[in-house]
UniProtKB/TrEMBL annotation:
Pathway of action: Secondary metabolite biosynthesis
PANTHER family: 3-(3-HYDROXY-PHENYL)PROPIONATE/3-HYDROXYCINNAMIC ACID HYDROXYLASE, BLR0106 PROTEIN
Any single biological process term in GO: 3-(3-hydroxy)phenylpropionate catabolic process
Keywords: FAD, Flavoprotein, NAD, Oxidoreductase
GO molecular function, one term: FAD binding
Name of this protein: FAD-binding domain-containing protein
Keyword presence, Heme: no
Source species: Daldinia eschscholtzii
Pfam families: FAD_binding_3
Record bears the keyword NAD: yes
Biased composition annotated in UniProt, kind: Polar residues: 13-25
Region (Disordered): 1-25
């Protein structure tokens, strides 16, 4: 297999004093290109990592098996310390302006029928609120304080923003239709075999590799890393829907609490009552359809039939009937709670869904992946600024894995599991009366609510500098937090 030579990578001789090179690819003893970091997967996690490294003059090659960015309806909500990361990469203003600000969430019962004077159902109105969490209110300038609200923006647009800005740096090369199929590594470098659409197989070499290749990660399998946990019985149908909402309540993002037909609704753009706007409805697909315990589950194809999609949607959408909504995108997902046994092996690291998967209720998955990318960027920046023979580096790499796994195991997994079960664990009135979280929301004591949410906000992000004392930093090398000044 011919080694891949990329035209826009500058070549430098590796430093002779053992210090890692930090900016450019160089040639190994065979004259083959060795890129500082290979990133597998052009999802939002891989692209944020590429951008963060590029802002610190570290070159990357991003290998993506598809021909373009995924447009599937997936993540929509970003909050907490993710806003700090957006600010540090200089994109907070753009992302927050393009997205819709949500100052909190409501939990509602299913919509109820509206009947005419003859008792005929002519539409539905939003279900009663059984709980609400007002995270914050906008200031006098109409803006929310970063970190104290949720930015609602489709994941595909977020990835596009990362890609556009990564490309502008000149430090990132994205190779589309490049699927990683093989991997080997030694103490100096990683080598991947890549199947391409038009150029056959290639071998690409890097000093380090970041597996950001999603839940079905090939790299994870090639490294022999186990993914353990459990899967949920229900499937989750994400639909992007154009509709005219008769009302847009203050807390327009709401969860529907129901033992069977639970879900989440959120605008995907600034919407106004009476005007058409794009909404996301994410709907539980019951493990057994039609409430019949003896019925066989529907196949994925049957669930995606327009009639079945509408049968679920029409339980959730308020407004007159017949409804004029149009489904513009839909995708069906399985739900899991899974974590790898390690996020680091040799010169390879895992980040995002390749390392951990949680159910989507509460929007914790991608946010956690973006914070992995942030921690990994810091780790690699430190690695490139240190001597490559520094014996402490291995410990730093293990720290990346243990810290991020700790966050998932102790914060994200329990929070996301509780978020999901709260939507369907009992009848809505019972949940409202008996669930500790709804009881706390009803009491509305800001101190108590802050204590409940604090573990998430305080522990979600990892500052890798804590594990690399300043005195260890190479002479003349400034180890910042991995952020551009
Ligand atoms: C319905 C739904 C709603 C969600 N809502 C939220 C939310 O509101 N907030 C939130 O934080 N999270 C949410 N999530 C989770 C979020 O979508 C994922 O956590 C996120 O997609 C993970 O990003 P990633 O970059 O790690 O992986 P992915 O987005 O899966 O990207 C992986 C990339 O790697 C590529 N790839 C795979 N294998 C290879 C290979 N061998 N070689 C080269 N390329 C490869 C893929 O083509 C893909 O482009 C939601 C998920 C779902 C399903």
């Amino acid at each position: 297999m011919a080694p891949h030579a990329s035209s826009d990578i500058s070549h430098e001789t590796p430093p002779t004093n053992g210090a890692n090179t930090n900016a450019s690819a160089y040639s190994d003893s065979n004259g083959t290109d060795v890129v500082p970091v290979i990133i597998v997967g052009a999802g939002p996690v891989g692209l944020l990592l590429a951008l963060r490294l590029a802002l610190n003059q570290i070159r990357t090659i991003v290998l993506e098996k598809e021909s373009s960015l995924s447009q599937l309806p997936r993540a929509i909500g970003y909050y907490g310390p993710v806003h700090d990361v957006f600010q540090e990469i200089g994109l907070y203003d753009q992302i927050s302006t393009e997205g819709m600000a949500s100052g909190g969430y409501a939990w509602r019962k299913l919509p109820t029928d509206v009947v005419d004077e003859n008792g005929k159902a002519v539409g539905k109105e939003l279900g009663a609120i059984i709980g609400k969490n007002v995270m914050s209110k906008p200031g006098p300038d109409g803006k929310f304080k970063p970190g104290h609200y949720s930015i609602q923006l489709a994941q595909c647009r977020l990835a596009e923003i990362f890609l556009e800005n990564a490309k502008k740096t000149g430090f990132v090369k994205v190779l589309w239709e490049h699927e990683v199929t093989g991997l080997s590594q030694d103490e100096n470098q990683v080598s991947v075999t890549v199947a391409t659409a038009g150029e056959g197989n290639k071998v690409i070499k890097g000093q380090y590799l970041a597996a950001c290749d999603g839940g079905r990660s090939t790299v994870r399998k090639l490294l022999g890393i186990r993914l353990s946990g459990h899967s949920w019985p229900e499937r989750f149908l994400a639909t992007d829907v154009l509709r005219v909402a008769p009302v847009v309540p203050e807390l327009s993002v709401h969860f529907t609490v129901d033992e069977t037909f639970w879900g989440v609704a959120t605008p995907l753009e600034h919407v106004e009552a009476g005007k058409e706007g794009l909404w996301r409805y994410s709907l539980a697909v019951p493990a057994k359809p039609n409430d019949d315990p003896n019925s066989a589950p529907l196949t994925d194809e049957q669930v995606l039939e327009p009639e079945y999609v509408d049968s679920l949607l029409l339980r959730q959408i308020d407004g007159p009937r017949p409804s004029t909504h149009v489904v513009v995108r839909k995708s069906l997902y399985k739900m899991h709670q899974l974590l790898v046994s390690t996020m680091h092996r040799g010169r390879c690291f895992l980040a995002g869904d390749s390392a951990h998967i949680n159910n989507p209720i509460g929007g914790l998955g991608l946010c956690t992946g973006l914070l992995d990318a942030d921690a990994l960027a810091q780790t690699l920046q430190i690695a490139f600024s240190a001597s490559s023979s520094d014996p402490n580096l291995e410990d730093l790499f293990n720290r990346y894995s243990t810290e991020r796994r700790w966050v998932f195991q102790n914060v994200i997994h329990p929070f996301s599991s509780a978020n999901k079960i709260r939507l369907h664990g009992a009848k809505p009135d019972d949940v409202a009366r008996e669930d500790w979280y709804f009881r706390a929301l009803a009491r509305g004591d800001p101190k108590e609510l802050e204590n409940i949410h604090r573990p998430l906000y305080a522990q979600w992000r990892t500052d890798m500098r804590k594990f690399w004392p300043v005195e260890r930093a190479g002479k003349g090398v400034k180890v910042t937090n991995g952020f551009t000044a």
